[in-house]
Model the fold of this input.
Amino acid sequence: MDHPALDHIALAVADIDAVAALYEDLFGLKLTHREQIDSQQVEMAFLGEEGATRLELIRPTTDNSGVARFLEKRGEGMHHIAFAVEDIAQTLADLKARGVQLIDEEPRPGAAGHLVAFIHPKAAHGTLIELVQHR
Ligand code: CO
Done:
């Protein structure tokens, strides 16, 4: 494959249990990982098996986090897409050299100890894009 795989699609939700139950009921997707990340004031859950494109559910744990503001403004729904890359630092350096507007210029720890970084939606016609390097 000469392009990065779509790793996951993330949905901003108000109630992880309700949405996880819905996807299990409709499509048999099982909740395989759940984690609270206090530095980002979110709880997240992954549905589906690692190795397949998964769904990520994100719920704000405070009223003033970025995801809380997203929910307030836009309601529940798609939040970002994520591509898996082999060398996130190199990918970020390449994008930066091309003048792509980044939210994270350096990788930071995300769910399950993976390294993540976000590209600004202004650089991608309104879609927030995450890069993830699996540990
Ligand atoms: Co994500």
Summary: The radius of gyration is 15 Å. Residues 8, 10, 56, 80, 82, 130 surround cobalt (II) ion (CB under 6 Å).
